[in-house]
Amino acid sequence: MTTLASLNAVTSSAGSRPRFRDLTAAEWIKTRSLRSTAIAYGVTALAVLGFNLGVAYDTYTYWTTQAAADRAQFIADGIPLQHAFGSNAAVVMMLALGATGALTVVGEYSTGTIRTTFAAVPARGAVLAAKAAVLAAVSTVFGLLLATASFFGTQAILGARDAGIGIGHPGALQVLLGSALLAPVCALAGFALGALIRQTATTMIATLVVLLILPMFLTDGRYWSALVGHATPYKAWLRLADPGYTAGEFPWTTAGAWTVYAMWAAAAVGVGMVAVRRRDQ
Amino acid sequence: MIEANELTKRYGGKTAVHDLTFTVRPGRVTGFLGPNGAGKSTTLRMILGLHAPTSGTVTVDGRPFADRPRGLRHIGSLLDAHDVHGGRSGRAQLEALARSNRIPRSRVDEVLAEVGLTDAARRRIGGYSLGMKQRLGIASALLGDPPVLLFDEPLNGLDPEGVRWVRGLFRRLAEEGRTVFVSSHLMSEMENAADDLIVIGRGALLAAEPLTDFAARGTRAHVTVRTPQAAELIGLLTAVDADVTSYGERLEITGATAPEIARIALDHRILLHHLATEHASLERAFMELTADSVEYGAAGDLTGTPSARDLVGEAR
């Protein structure tokens, strides 16, 4: 029963200052209590693995190289690394994770849950930061598991033709991490767009445009186009995951690509926190 | 205690709430009444800091609610029972809310038992009836054992037993010294539940007073009579300047008391089947007060009632 006595008990136990950890714990409960979260990640994992293992299996099936020297050339050309995480898989993952990230915010707006959330925690910026933290953690673990499974899965298939490589191979770790971290970067980008736009359909379209369509129009041929292009997550991933990178007219380093990842993640969290500050909810 | 001071909210060119000043006191159930679109929900959202006032202020126990880092121990609220994700279980919804405010998990079981949702707690909210969602929303409001509680149309979708339960709950919360603020667009819902009333129409304050005062300002009490000699009685009553509305054998009379009417009938050997004083109806007082400020009224259905401004004028 609710009585004044229990009121006082609960209130006094509340005396200490608010902790951010409580908010992340609450967001984690929200994340794991939705069946759709597990389904979204599960289906994405199947699609990405399907693309990566499928391509490796294709190479295995239509294998013609017989001479040992040719195998060595196959490896030296970095082709096993390209198999470790292909661009089709990357595109699928970008869109799926962008949508998943967006849904953590627009899912609350479309159902009205956001008002319940903000009435319980008036520190709105902190709520968004907690959401971003949980999303980043979950999607990073997801990306790492998926990139690792893709790497070892594809190399095992190629290994049947003696053409696989180990994780110690030069560039292998970069491909694995670059692909793994594409997941949280895109999830956070979707999250930020969701917090800005708040409307499900528009957010999804914006996520598609920003993550996928924009980089398609930006070529490396002109300075500005290359500059803006290099600032997109997809091109950063290409820079990190393509072992055969050849410096064009406007070259960039892998350190630059990592920085792009970091900037997107940081900017997304900032945008999310500012987006809820002033507007009516 | 909730204190609104010259609270105004405009959305674009439309004024939703205009210059609203009122106080909601602890230890009482305060009904927040107004027709649809009067600005009740907007006001509640401003109290909760979800919408920022265009001008004016509103404080809860002396502070704007938005300044509190965590809210559940200061205000428990139910704005809309649908403001939850249907994919989650009721228990998960409450656990997330409790955790965000560092409320012990045992409290979730307590409020679930309190609202009678213990058995349904593990089911997805999407499968709940509206009444169950209302109960879940009330459970959320009770989580932090708050001194102030806000409910927006909490009786929607509840069965009669549920309505009785909610009224009892509000009463008890108020007796425990809490501030209980309950909105409704139906006077009848407040009739047996509220101590005080705040009535708004088109975003402006129409009345803020105890329920008993509000009832007194309503329609002048009238007398109903049923008689087979209606025509005869109407003639006699009109002669003494009473107002009579006739519905066949049933007459509604103002301007004459029941004893006066009985005397007239006796003197003229008129048979009465029924004679009763109808007490002032809160519903009617509310209708008359808000007649001018109904946002989405059907055309012509409110003609002939005194304007709200007149009544407010009288009250002042």
Automatic annotation (TrEMBL), chain A:
| Signal peptide positions on this chain | none
Q: Which UniProt keywords apply?
A: Membrane, Transmembrane, Transmembrane helix
Species, as recorded? Streptomyces mesophilus
One matching Pfam family = ABC2_membrane_4
What is the name attached to this protein's record? ABC transporter permease subunit
Membrane-spanning intervals of the chain = 38-57, 89-107, 128-152, 172-193, 200-218, 255-276
From TrEMBL, chain B:
Q: Which CDD domains match?
A: ABC_BcrA_bacitracin_resist (cd03268)
Pfam families in UniProt: ABC_tran
Record keywords: Nucleotide-binding included? yes
Sorted keywords for this record are: ATP-binding, Nucleotide-binding, Transport
The UniProt record lists the keyword Hydrolase: no
Gene Ontology MF terms in the entry:
ATP binding; ATP hydrolysis activity
Q: Where is the ABC transporter domain?
A: 2-227
Q: Which residues form a coiled coil?
A: none
**What's the superkingdom here?**
Bacteria
Q: Which PROSITE patterns match?
A: ABC_TRANSPORTER_1, ABC_TRANSPORTER_2
Report the family membership: Belongs to the ABC transporter superfamily.
Q: What is this protein called?
A: ABC transporter ATP-binding protein
- Phylogenetic lineage: Bacteria, Bacillati, Actinomycetota, Actinomycetes, Kitasatosporales
